Amino acid sequence: MTEPSSYAIRGEITDSSFEEQSAADHVHAACPDGQRFAAWLFVGVFASRAFTSSSAYFADANRHLAAIRSHTYVIQAPGYWLFNRIAGLFPDAEVAISVMNWLFSASGAIAFYFAVRRIASERVARVSSIAYATVCFAWLSGNIHSTYASQLLFPVAVFLCLLHYWGNPKFGWLVAAGVLFAVGTGFRPSDGAFFAPAFLYGLSRCQFKHALGCIAVVFPICLAWLIPQQLALSKYVNQSLGSHFAQMADGVLVIGLSRYALSNVIRLVLPFTFFLLPLLGLIFKNRRRPFLWLWVLPGMLFYLLIYFPEAVYMGCLLAPLLLLAADNRTVSERTKVRLFAVCAALNIIFYVGWRPVRLKNQRLQAAEYLIEVDLGKCSFYSVQHHYDPRLSQLLHVRGYGEPSYTPTKN
Known about the structure:
Blueprint: H1 6-10, H2 18-22, H3 34-50, H4 61-69, H5 81-87, H6 93-117, H7 122-134, H8 136-143, H9 154-167, H10 171-187, H11 189-204, H12 208-236, H13 241-248, H14 252-255, H15 259-275, H16 280-285, H17 290-305, H18 315-327, H19 333-353, H20 362-376, H21 380-385, H22 391-395
């Protein structure tokens, strides 16, 4: 016999709009030790990042540090001025970036936990927040010296503020949402652009004067980081965003059908399906939440069709994907708890236990290289050994946007 859903027990409505659900007469039964769990979650996630991090090595880490030391605070467009400028306020920028990312990861897990508590049961909220913190590409973003981990906090914190507003329409919640959106966009402008349709949709469900007030908060904060960022880019970086993008983008809409476009799709699909495999059914069966799908689709379509560099870029999409799974009403609470637990366990085992393998069969080795590059980077081994290979280098072929690669002879 199917276990009765916690939603039916608490009498929650199943309308397709979050604001209507939050405004319903029911009150979420607050767990007396929810604050204690949140505190332990913060400590656990912070410690997991701190004990598995290393010195700067991944992607643009050293370029961020060089920009901070030279006081230019921008790398290639869009620049990331806000992130570098904040890290530059501290004596050791490398340590500052690490601590910032540990805090983003831990605080993001807490924000996700409190958001899920408002749309699902306490048990689902707890196990899903653990899964949110342990998905391998999210874990890696907290270990490296770049901007990705910021998107584990700011978008889901905006969503939490909107949930509070929809349940109790006080303008202060929209002010907080606007500040968080503007600052989060400053850390990663591209991810802010992906989140903007969902944010604007959320504002459309608010009182008009409150929505206008929120937008009035967003604009000056965005200008506060956008103006110095653009000035620094024009002064210190010769390459524009358009030229940088044209050089790197290898999706099917940019270069047509080719092996490079296929590689771009594989880079997205492989980590997405592998790290979230137990939850895929829950995610795709939940079609009731336009806000969450507007949060997912812009970034997912951009990555699929235009440009997807590597798995850590999916950090901005992790919260809505797991929220869709947590909010799924077609399965029992017990099933959701079990699937989230399996997802968390698989990711922990992979992150801690993965190692590269060398095989004699060339075809099997080529397949292993694919796993090595698209999945193996998201592991403690890779962080510990500063292992950040490209598939073109392992296979001794030319990658899109790279110069011809000549293999060395032994």
